Amino acid sequence: MGYRFLVVGLALCSLALRLSLAIWASSSFDTESYEIVVAILRAGGNVYTATARYNYSPLWFWILWTCAHVATHLNTELAIVVRMLLTVVDAGNALLITVIAPHFNTPRWAGLAYWLSPVTIGVSAAQGQFEALALLPLLLSIWLLLRSHRQASFSFWLCTALAVAIKHLVVFQIWLVLVYAVGLRRALLLAAAIGGMVVLLFVPYLGQGGAAGIVDHVLLYRSVTGLYGLGAVLPISVATTIFISVSILSPIILYRRQIPFAEALLYFNVLWVVLMPGLGQQY
């Protein structure tokens, strides 16, 4: 009983801190960028030609547009609505981690650790960055895969596609999940289907210079280089090539060597963090 009270107390303290930050935190580079994007949308402009501060698929600015309407209705700031949304998303992630953890021989309190983590609190509740939103369908896809005993369903594919559509950088984690879910050949087909779906999201914004903006601001976007990882010691083109190559090939190697899924996730993400060629400016 005492243990449960401790867990509930810690969770409520984290919730209080998250809500306080969501309401009163100062604006960040990201939340300022969200305001710029919404202003462009309200003016009827093309986000991909009007600013270099948007580097994602249209799905996120559709969510921002919805958040802006909510903010207007509530007579509050867009940043507050976004940070509140991400706080709810983080709660969902924590619950999914709690459910998934036993499948990986990990204590259920891993979900509480995520909820209490200063990193997740800072990223979502203070900075308003939406990594957690992309993580939600990724975790949900893993849960669906485990629940169905590695039988990939349409819901599983939809969650993987949604994760990539929200933030395309998670494509490498999704690639690992696909390989372990359905094997290499079918993973290639599913990855192609996901890629095709994401490309379709961009089609309405290709005109009037939008295609060039999408290439420059999304496909060729690079975070700050020279500060971290291989990008600090190698030419950025070489560092990026190594990062992408390892991110594509390592899931195949891990799968063929029959490394358990849980261990493969750990090995892959360590490699991914170590070899990442740069960091975002806000970090």
Overview in brief:
By secondary structure, this protein is mainly α. 73% of the residues lie in helices and 1% in strands.
List its traits.
283 residues, two-stranded antiparallel ribbon, 73% helix, globular
Report on the structure:
The structure is a single chain. The protein is globular and about 55 Å long. It is mainly alpha-helical and 283 residues long. It has helices spanning 2-24, 29-42, 47-50, 58-74, 78-100, 110-116, 118-127, 131-147, 154-166, 171-202, 210-219, 236-256, 261-275, and strands spanning 224-225, 278-279. A two-stranded antiparallel sheet has the order 1-2.
Share in β-strands: under 5%
Question: Widest sheet: strand order?
Answer: 1-2
Overall residue-averaged pLDDT value: 90
Question: Rg from C-alpha positions?
Answer: 20 Å
- Report the structural category: mainly alpha
Instruction: Give helix % range.
Output: over 70%
Give the biggest beta sheet: 2 strands, antiparallel
User: What is the count of helical runs?
Assistant: 13
Give me the count of strands: 2
Poorly predicted ranges (pLDDT <50, ≥5 residues)? Answer: none
Distance between the termini: 40 Å
Using the alpha-carbon principal axes, give the shape: globular
Q: Summarize the helix and strand pattern as letters.
A: HHHHHHHHHHHEHHE
